[in-house]
Amino acid sequence: MTRFLVMFILAGILVTTSSARDFGPSSVNQSFQQQSASRFTQPEGEILSVTVIPDGRAIVAATSGLFISNADRMGPWEEGPGFEITVLEHDGETLWAGGGHQLAKRDQSGWDNFNLAEEIQIDDIRFFGDKIGIGTNQGFCFLDKETLDGIIIGDQPIRAFTVLGDWIYLGTDDHLLRATTKGGSLEELTISDEKYSWSPTQVTALASDGSHLWMGCKEGAAVFDGTQWKIFTGEE
Fold this sequence. Notes:
23 strands, globular, Methylamine Dehydrogenase, Chain H, mainly beta, 4-stranded antiparallel β-sheet
């Protein structure tokens, strides 16, 4: 078992709030009706992230700004949180955005911004109940969605992550790792079934349905049912 650094953080270092705007569909649809048809354009530049909000519309982050779909059209939405967004996710109530070391959330009161340490690069955002998981180039953040208090686990780039029960599973270029949801030391996992034994590398995909953990890595794919692994190599 290999142990890695675990660091506690204060997530809400800096908070700024933009002017309040209604996030409901009626106000957005009304603003679309006030625009000429020429305003409905495809996002210019590179598409950096896309997410879908509960009413079925898509929000697109591009190098040229934020865009939102409306029926079969797409047009400019609003000013973003003040940084280039590379990750967009919606938790059913709140829109979350990440870019560089900056994290922001937008609800009916507008945008709130939070700065992590400058050396951190946010790569992915996912939600687990009242927690938000953030994969970065320097470990994994597991934070309370309301207070943004929490922990950073590990100190290396995180390629994939998920939560199963009381365990956080992390994929890196070199290992499959796990730690408890309360923090503590990271454990490097070796997996095996009746035919194979792996120390997984290049773990780029992790998913959980609440009872099983699925993993994709350089060596193949595997599923864990809470007690034992089944490994798939393509050789069967």
